[in-house]
Amino acid sequence: MAAPAQNLRINGDRLWDSLMEMARIGPGVAGGNNRQTLTDEDAEGRALFRTWCEDAGCEMGLDQMGNMFARREGADPDALPVYVGSHLDTQPTGGKYDGVLGVLGGLEIIRTLNDLGIRTKHPIVVTNWTNEEGTRFAPAMLASGVFAGMHTQDWAYAREDADGKKFGDELQRIGWRGDEEVGARKMHAFFELHIEQGPILEAEGKDIGVVTHGQGLSWTQVTITGKDAHTGSTPMPMRKNAGLAMARVLEKVDEIAWSHAPHAVGAAGHIDVYPNSRNVIPGKAVFTVDFRSPDLEVIRDMENRLRVAAEDIADEMGLQIEFEKVGGFDPVKFDENCVAAVRNATERLGYSHTDIISGAGHDACWINRVAPTAMVMCPCVDGLSHNEAEEISKDWAAAGADVLFHAVVETAEVVE
């Protein structure tokens, strides 16, 4: 297949300016972003992206989950498109680059091809996947999961946020529900550029991470029910303290993850304690345990040990306990040919690189089930992400987008 010339690069200044302009929509309180999915800010960010895509000559498609598809035609009308993209939604206290770099890096491919007058055999489609973060509506990667057949659309539409608002209703409210059947599109390949969200690339002084695998993920929501009681007048032997039980369970979570070091991890990031009053012993605790590993058997072992240990703690304390699997996916091995395209592009451009396993979930992890897929990663400062202090350099962004450009355009095949 024909690859772009070695000296070709994207416009790093234009990419950076686009990142900064998108960051003005849904600003956070500390320099980052709060552009949660299906909010008015999400709708505004989508509208800006659509304008940019149409200005670049793309036709915008929209499916019933709100996934956006900006298409640049190829020379062969029968050739399956090469897809590229990520997500525009953020955490409540998110950074300016998580997800957004992958979407706007894809747009920069289109702009650069237009600048250079390059045609490709395959169409190229830049994608914004809805609700990757899963913060407002669990689980994460919801719309790409529907696209890949992992969830039904009705189930996704029924997901509720903390205020009881349904995903389907909010999608309709902000005006970004399309008519296209979800998952009807067929892909030649899919590529996703993302910041690492970890410290490895920066610590090793590498420009690019060639992502070969993705960690599997398991989210188990645990509900422990005891009895609300006065903290001052309830004797210690008569307490049914759900908060204390949660603390003991979380110690076990840490212990279980450490037993599978160095690649397994575990913690609880989402915790609610009720009634959450200073002078009331917690009568209920609800928390989500997040286990991850690139080994499926390790994930299963951690899940099983959590249940056994947590049930023992609840029984010993005379409490009720319930478990619900609220999210997860198996470890991912990305397509060897797509990974090779990323690695070859990195070497052709002269960037330092290392193979890496993604510690976070990404839309590419679901799309890998229905199309050949690979990921490109660039460093982020101190490995910090899901935080308003998340930061990358303009050079890192440009290097990642350069590699993305070469891998995507090589796969889409330059027409001489």
Share of residues in strands: 15-25%
Shape: elongated
Q: Determine Rg (CA atoms, Å).
A: 23 Å
Helix and strand sequence: HHEEEHEHHHEHEEEHEEEHEEHEHEH
* Spatial gap, N to C terminus: 11 Å
In the predicted model, the low-confidence regions spanning at least 5 consecutive residues are none
Main structural class: alpha/beta
User: Biggest β-sheet, characterized?
Assistant: 9 strands, mixed
Give average pLDDT, whole number: 97
Family: Belongs to the peptidase M20 family.
Domain Peptidase M20 dimerisation: 215-315
Keywords: Hydrolase
Pfam families: M20_dimer (PF07687), Peptidase_M20 (PF01546)
Describe the structure.
The chain is α/β, with parallel strands linked by helices and 416 residues long. Helix content is 35%, strand content 22%. It has helices at residues 12-23, 40-55, 100-116, 142-147, 153-157, 167-173, 200-204, 242-258, 296-317, 336-349, 363-367, 394-412, and strands spanning 59-62, 68-72, 82-86, 124-128, 189-195, 208-214, 216-225, 229-230, 265-274, 280-281, 284-293, 320-329, 332-333, 353-358, 373-378. Strands 1, 2, 3, 4, 5, 6, 13, 14 and 15 form a nine-stranded mixed sheet that branches. The longest helix is centred in the last third of the chain and has 22 residues, at 296-317. The protein is elongated and about 80 Å long. The chain starts with 11 loop residues before the first helix and ends with a helix. The mean pLDDT is 97.
Question: Which terms would index this structure?
Answer:
416 residues; alpha/beta; four-stranded antiparallel β-sheet; elongated; Amidase_Cbmase; Bact_exopeptidase_dim_dom
